[in-house]
């Protein structure tokens, strides 16, 4: 994925994004952090092709990107499997193959046997797993995730960190993950990018070099998260002034 000089401005409003240059190799896991309103979600929308940049170029290898939101956005009148099958149907997968492929994807996110459950029967964490399976069903090379675990409790979020890391390694997808939680970014990402407050620019980045088992309470994760948080606070204070 490559972005060159990407800027965004709506009509006569303020500049949202300003001169974003970004290159992400295939199969990388990159986390994006920044203050609320700095343009993180707008940047994901541009990468996903949901809206154009005002200036600049965006190149995404393959056939584009799938986007996963904070809310699972499952269709409540469909079962878990049917929600996944819908993405396959929109891709043109035939009826004979959809069920088996959907079951495989639910197995991948550890929801095998839950395909016939209604959405209201699923916990918040289970719904997000179904949403992840549905995103993977789009068979895009790039997976964009906009605060997908932000509404979940800490324990469920921690479990889903493990699941996402496992799925990422199994599928080889390129992942761009937006979060307000700096420790979450260090726990998951190979790189962490910090965006400035408006106009949004990438002002700093870190390569995450944490040896041994990586978990959110690990001292190395906490130490790097503390450093990044210090820079994030500086950006927030600068904007406030």
Can you describe this structure?
The protein is of the alpha/beta class. It folds into 2 domains: 25-53 and 141-240, Rossmann fold, CATH 3.40.50; 74-139, no CATH class. The chain is 39% helix and 22% strand. It is built from 7 helices and 9 strands. It has helices at 40-48, 80-90, 95-108, 124-137, 154-171, 182-188, 219-240; strands at residues 2-9, 15-23, 29-34, 55-59, 65-68, 142-146, 174-178, 191-195, 202-207. It has a 6-stranded mixed β-sheet with strand order 5-6-7-3-8-9, with helices on both faces. Strands 2-1-4 form a 3-stranded antiparallel β-sheet, covered by helices on one side. Helix 5 links the parallel strand 6 (142-146) and strand 7. Helix 2 (80-90) runs parallel beside helix 4 (124-137), helix 3 (95-108) packs across helix 4 and helix 6 (182-188) crosses helix 7 (219-240). The chain is globular and about 55 Å long.
Gist of the model:
By secondary structure, this protein is of the alpha/beta class. It has seven helices and nine strands.
Task: Using brief descriptors, characterize the structure shown.
241 residues, alpha/beta, Rossmann fold, 3-stranded antiparallel beta sheet, 7 helices, 9 strands, 39% helix
How would you sum up the global shape? globular
Quaternary structure annotation: single chain
Largest sheet: 6 strands, mixed
Number of separate domains: 2
Return the average pLDDT rounded to an integer. Answer: 90
Order of strands, main sheet, comes to 5-6-7-3-8-9
Helix-strand string: EEEHEEHHHEHEHEEH
Radius of gyration: 18 Å
- Name of the CATH class of the largest domain: Alpha Beta
Distance between the termini: 35 Å
Number of H/I helices: 7
Q: Structural class, from secondary structure content?
A: alpha/beta
Content of β-strand: 15-25%
GO molecular function: ATP binding; ATP hydrolysis activity
Organism: Cellulomonas bogoriensis 69B4 = DSM 16987
Keywords: ATP-binding, Nucleotide-binding, Transport
Pfam families: ABC_tran
